[in-house]
Amino acid sequence: MIAHPFSLEGKTGIVTGLANADSIAYGCAKAMHEAGAEMIVTYGSPKAEKHITPLAADMGNPQLMLCDVQDEAQVEALFAQARERWGKLDFLIHSMAFATRDDLHGRVVDCSREGFGLAMDVSCHSFMRLAKQAEPLMKDGGTLITMSYYGAEKVVENYNMMGPVKAALEASVRYMADELGPAGIRVHALSPGPIRTRAASGIKDFENLAQTAEQRAPLRRLVSIEDVGRTAVFLTSEAGHSLTGGTTYVDAGDHVKA
């Protein structure tokens, strides 16, 4: 008998991509902690340390580790630490994306080969690499979650090259769910509506995008990083044990509007 289907008591995991108090990763880490999970939280640059250290208490004072996903040694060190500390993993949250400003602000057909490759590597392929490292530690199954956006499905003005990148990420979720499902590992994409994060600030005219979404969404509001975090808890918990391979919209209903 499960005490509470939404509890994460006894579960251990990794949350990646923390940058500051506006990060979706922060919302996820707080929610995971509040649900009872223990975790390692990673950040991608030493410059982030001064912004994330004051946030530790709200996340249950997790171990904070530097992990640039393009640095194989740092990725291996992260999972070695998880293996040494717990001997298992129950969840992994991948919350990162990157594109150079020039490529992001230009037309899709004008983006450089190097820029597109970089965006795909950090925003999409890194999820696969982290999943491969996590798989052996998910001996009793687990949950892998990444972050997408509606621009993967429909054209969103100024989202530009990140649309094809996120589309590839969502397709990867489906294939990974099929491959890892027999081992009890579930794979999800969350698709939040516009949230005022540091990453979002790189999108041209983002404030106009956010205001339009707020006015158009059926719930007439934007979502918060806490909304995303609570959805991640649901999918990771026993309550979500029959769900895998999909994209879950956390956008106040904005995706249903034409």
Automatic annotation (TrEMBL):
<feature type="binding site">
    <location>
        <position position="166"/>
    </location>
    <ligand>
        <name>NAD(+)</name>
    </ligand>
</feature>
<dbReference type="InterPro" id="IPR002347">
    <property type="entry name" value="SDR_fam"/>
</dbReference>
<dbReference type="GO" id="GO:0004318">
    <property type="term" value="F:enoyl-[acyl-carrier-protein] reductase (NADH) activity"/>
</dbReference>
<comment type="pathway">
    <text>Lipid metabolism; fatty acid biosynthesis.</text>
</comment>
<dbReference type="GO" id="GO:0006633">
    <property type="term" value="P:fatty acid biosynthetic process"/>
</dbReference>
<feature type="binding site">
    <location>
        <begin position="195"/>
        <end position="199"/>
    </location>
    <ligand>
        <name>NAD(+)</name>
    </ligand>
</feature>
<dbReference type="InterPro" id="IPR036291">
    <property type="entry name" value="NAD(P)-bd_dom_sf"/>
</dbReference>
<protein>
    <recommendedName>
        <fullName>Enoyl-[acyl-carrier-protein] reductase [NADH]</fullName>
        <ecNumber>1.3.1.9</ecNumber>
    </recommendedName>
</protein>
<keyword id="KW-0276">Fatty acid metabolism</keyword>
<keyword id="KW-0444">Lipid biosynthesis</keyword>
<feature type="binding site">
    <location>
        <position position="99"/>
    </location>
    <ligand>
        <name>substrate</name>
    </ligand>
</feature>
<feature type="active site" description="Proton acceptor">
    <location>
        <position position="159"/>
    </location>
</feature>
<feature type="active site" description="Proton acceptor">
    <location>
        <position position="149"/>
    </location>
</feature>
<keyword id="KW-0443">Lipid metabolism</keyword>
<keyword id="KW-0275">Fatty acid biosynthesis</keyword>
<feature type="binding site">
    <location>
        <position position="17"/>
    </location>
    <ligand>
        <name>NAD(+)</name>
    </ligand>
</feature>
<feature type="binding site">
    <location>
        <position position="96"/>
    </location>
    <ligand>
        <name>NAD(+)</name>
    </ligand>
</feature>
<keyword id="KW-0520">NAD</keyword>
<feature type="binding site">
    <location>
        <begin position="68"/>
        <end position="69"/>
    </location>
    <ligand>
        <name>NAD(+)</name>
    </ligand>
</feature>
<comment type="similarity">
    <text>Belongs to the short-chain dehydrogenases/reductases (SDR) family. FabI subfamily.</text>
</comment>
<keyword id="KW-0560">Oxidoreductase</keyword>
<feature type="binding site">
    <location>
        <begin position="23"/>
        <end position="24"/>
    </location>
    <ligand>
        <name>NAD(+)</name>
    </ligand>
</feature>
<dbReference type="InterPro" id="IPR014358">
    <property type="entry name" value="Enoyl-ACP_Rdtase_NADH"/>
</dbReference>
<dbReference type="Pfam" id="PF13561">
    <property type="entry name" value="adh_short_C2"/>
</dbReference>
